[in-house]
Each structure stands twice: as C-alpha cells, then as structure tokens.
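Regression test case RT-17, inverse folding.

Input:
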C-alpha cells in the first residue's frame, strides 16, 4: 500500500523543501527533486535511479496517470500520495502533472569523455549564475549533440529545480561535469582538444574557425564574462560573435547555442 501525506508539517515534506531549496543538502544527501511527468520520464530514460515518487491524485493528468501506473510494481521505489495543499507547497511551479520524484545524483568526470568515439564537442561555462541560462544551454547542447557541458568556478547547480525546468529534462541526457578551470585546460591539452573562448573584443569571428576537430567552447559569467584565467591563457583561442546593434553581446545561452551549432554544421558537411 502507498504511503500518504496529509500535513504540510510532515518531516518528509520539510526534507523535500530543503532538497529543493538548498544545494548543500542535495550535495550532502546525493539526491535531488524532479517535478513533472516529462522531466521524470527523461530522467528514467537516461538511467537515473529513482528513489521516491510523490503524486497528487487531484492534479494527475493523463501523463501523470501513465507514469504512476508504470511505477506501481517497482518495489524499490517508495510511493507516496499527497493532499493537494501539500503538493502546492512542494511544487515550484504549476501544471507539473501532479508528480514529484527524488533521484540519485550522477557524477561525471573529464576522464570518462575518452570513452566517446566521435570528436569531442564540449560546452563550458565559468561562474554561470542563472539556472535558466544553464537550462537553456543544456537544451542547445542536447540538440547539437554536445558531448558534455562543463561547469567551472562558482557555477549554478545543474540539479537546481529551475535548471531542470528550463532544460526540459535535457539535463539528464547531456553529461554535466563540474571541475576547475585548470583541470579543464589540462584535460584539453592532454587530449588535443582545441579551446575557444567567447570574448566580445576578440579579433577572430567565430564562424571563421575550423571546429571539425575536438573542441571546447568556453563562456563566462552573465555580467562579467570570462576571467583573466581564460583571457590571458596561451593555450586558448578567442572568438567573437559580430554585433550590429547597440548591445555588445548576446545572452550567454544564445552565444553558446550559436557556437555549438556552428560546430555541428561544419561536422555535417
């Protein structure tokens, strides 16, 4: 029989809210929350381990009902129904098919990239602050067939609920690697991966470079761009996106999309 929660003061509810709001708790426990049947299905399809499943009968639509039915016989998953007022407290957004799940985190490393057969295409962000920008970038990475997204410095948590939401669940289909700037540079040098840094004042236009070989595009913080580590590094190339209007740069997720799709276009020739 499924468990049931009728009080918003329940200790499980409090734990789930902490998981949603605090990166430190997600890191300590090694799990994270996912809202919505589409996002949960994409996590399952990419072999993320499901630990707990919560559903609100009042809000279950067809997709939620189908997902619930598919999980009913899985004895390894804790199934819990919740009252509507409790679910409203748990959910970050409306219209999430009445489902919320807890999954185990996956950890990816730069060394695991050597297992890939095709030339690497990496998308890296330094000190990225906004979950929405990461989520949008993950959608572009998924669409362009990027090998992995790399986060350095103080970048946002990929398992932040808003990152997951903005990615439409593609955070589960693209490996996300967290490392230092130096670790990324060392890896790229060791494996002959060309590094291109997006910089508004770079002399070389991005579409004039050859991206058919293994390459990594580095984008910086939304407000300040990349740090001096990248601007002064001798082993990287700087490229710019030409701007015709009054703004001197694009949103970081748009810039990243242009770069990886240019690489994909060249590789399809």
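Golden output:
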């Amino acid at each position: 029989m499924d468990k049931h929660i009728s009080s918003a003061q329940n200790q499980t509810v409090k734990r789930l809210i902490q998981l949603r709001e605090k990166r430190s708790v997600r890191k300590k426990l090694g799990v994270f929350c996912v809202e919505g049947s589409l996002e949960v299905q994409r996590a399952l399809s990419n072999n993320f381990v499901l630990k707990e499943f919560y559903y609100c009968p009042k809000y279950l639509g067809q997709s939620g009902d189908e997902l619930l039915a598919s999980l009913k016989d899985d004895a390894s998953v804790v199934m819990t129904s919740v009252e509507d007022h409790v679910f409203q407290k748990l959910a970050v957004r409306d219209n999430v098919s009445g489902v919320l799940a807890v999954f185990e985190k996956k950890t990816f490393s730069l060394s695991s990239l050597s297992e890939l057969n095709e030339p690497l295409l990496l998308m890296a962000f330094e000190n990225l602050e906004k979950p929405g920008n990461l989520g949008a970038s993950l959608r572009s990475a998924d669409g362009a067939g990027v090998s992995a997204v790399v986060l350095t410095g103080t970048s946002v948590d990929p398992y932040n609920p808003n990152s997951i939401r903005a990615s439409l669940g593609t955070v589960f289909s693209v490996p996300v690697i967290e490392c230092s700037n130096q670790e990324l540079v060392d890896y790229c040098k060791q494996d002959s991966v060309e590094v291109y840094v997006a910089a508004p004042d770079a002399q070389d236009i991005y579409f004039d470079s050859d991206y058919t070989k293994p390459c990594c595009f580095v984008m910086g913080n939304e407000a300040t761009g990349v740090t001096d580590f990248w601007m002064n590094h001798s082993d990287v190339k700087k490229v710019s996106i030409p701007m015709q209007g009054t703004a001197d740069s694009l949103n970081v997720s748009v810039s990243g999309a242009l770069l990886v799709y240019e690489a994909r276009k060249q590789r399809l020739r």
